[in-house]
Design a protein that fits this description.
By secondary structure, the protein is α/β, with parallel strands linked by helices. The chain has 13 helices and 36 strands. It folds into 5 domains: 2-79 and 663-683, no CATH class; 90-221 and 621-658, von Willebrand factor, type A domain (Rossmann fold, 3-Layer(aba) Sandwich), CATH 3.40.50.410; 227-320, Immunoglobulins (Immunoglobulin-like); 327-527, Rossmann fold (3-Layer(aba) Sandwich), CATH 3.40.50; 537-611, Immunoglobulin-like.
Length: 685
Amino acid sequence: MRFIYPEFLTALLLICLPILIHFLHFKRYKTVYFSQVNFLKAVKEDTRKKSNLKQLLILLARILTISALVFVFAQPYLPTNKQERKVARKIVALYVDNSYSMKGATDNGMLLEQAKSRAISIASSYGPGTNYILMENQNLPGRQHLINQTQLVTQLGKIQEGPLSINVSKAYQQLKNNLLKQTDKSDKIIYLISDFQSYTSDFSEIESDTTIQTFLIPVGSQVANNLLIDSCWFETPGHKKKREETLFARVKNLSSQSYQDIPVRLKVNDTIKSISNIDIDAEAEQILELAYKNNSSGVHRLVVELDDYPVVYDNQYFLSYNVRDKNDVLAIFQSDDSAVRKLEALFENDENISFEKTAVSKVKVSEFDQYQCIYLLNLNEFSSGLVNALNQFVEKGGSLGIFPGMQADLASYNELYGKLEAGLITGSDSVKLKMDQVNFNHLLLQDVFLHEKENLDLPEVELSYRYRVGVQSSQLSIVDFNNGQTAVSQYQKGQGRVYNFSFPLNDELTDFSKHAIFVPLVYNIALNSFEPQQIQYEIADNLILSLPKSESFTLGESLSISPMQADEEIQLSSINQTANEFRVDLQGVVQKAGFYNLSQGEEKVRTLAFNFNRRESTSPQLTNTQLEDAVDAAGLLSFNVIDATNSNFETRILEANEGIQLWQFFLAIGLFFIAAEVLISRFWK
């Protein structure tokens, strides 16, 4: 047994008062002599014994009454947790999870409302002098300061569900830091109220503080029937005008029942382009292929949606991308080389390609980010600056086509190939070779030759280079020579691609430009060159928007973002520039899924699509037993789990925090002995 106010135990000295009263009020007897006193003497001895017993019982009742009342004021308790209370004054920090998973429901109502109700019950179990700190996922300003119980109830009423979710370790650490900032001597207590989904319950990351008692209050959900759009993606990364697109959508069924004829709709720029009816088994998933066509250039806004209830926040998936009018292409050539004329003739007056050329001696590497594709035509060597610039161009998503020069400096080329993680040149061959094997399934040649694959006339080459390719290389062969060497190959580097031709583009050494395979290979490299686009963003509390330098931003001028379906505009901080991109801080700005316009001044820069985190839908919740096991495995000695569904929740909270209270017991004892003293004094004759 321990005491909240042990200093009151000094009042036990008051038991000296009834003892003094007892000894100072003995009755004095007067002796009277008369005959035949033997009988009276016996009566007097018997009465004295009874009187002494009565007085002793009264004294004992008074001593026990005073002792019991002193114990009442000292607040005795039996500790039920792993930590002993030190002081009566307390600061209570509460975290209420308001992520979208808390929109789930049980027979007792929505989980978030249950969480808020439990938070109010916790506050009601403390005295009026208790201070509180309230925290939620959005971590709004003003929710980190000390408040009283009335303010706590008011702020709890304002909490609404939101898209953000945070890990348990982060919530605990933030509350712990706020508590440790308080300098007064108070008991510091943390309550974490959540559905404790497995992906956020990272107890192993918590650095426990045994001076802070922590309670986990799980509000579990019954398994709800839920059908959701889990994710969407494209087969190819680029998007061009008048091309057929195939969008893949993964639909998940998290319920225990099957669904039939569920319509899944695809909207493009608010127009329905495709509807697919699906049958999906219980606890299964299905991938749909939704086809449509990019009829125009500009921004394309896509929504994949289905109808499902009661969980509705994951019924839609938003995507956006931009289709260019033309791809910007640059050819770098030797000043005395005529090979560039072949590309000029190929791209001249093409509605899909904007073609430019420059001699290698006049190249401006600072302008590379304006292009989607660069061709290197018969260059003999490269400067280190050009090598680095080409490497950055490919890493950021550009396509690079390389025709090596007739007198190529192998060291210079291998420096470039090494940066690009492509094959290294080991030597050259002057033996005539004929192209023999063609990968018609490659993107550059797909659907090009429909009826003449077997009899296709292929070029010959009189000068070619041999390459050594590493085991971990990303090489993909497109065309091979008849001796097995690679004639045209593709390498992946960063977000871009390298297309390497192992021979010069020279009419004296090859008839490549005169054959049917020339146009689709060279033209489709440019046509299928796309800048990387983020087709959607996941709403998060630490969202940083990264945009390529090709965007027309003005440094120092602020940006704004506005939902397309709402008349509001949110000002953003200034743009931060790195070596390869612009970075815009969107932390806590986007709260709803949908489309947003990013603008600078009056100019719209880009349309962005945002989606809720699907882990809120798919992650299981930890049971009370699993929570206790996770806490024990993490060695968190000051953590306790309390069942929020318990009908005696308030009593459990009081006992867990205060221990088993004994003051009522001692008050009853005190009242009993007061009554006993009255009864003895009045009825004992």
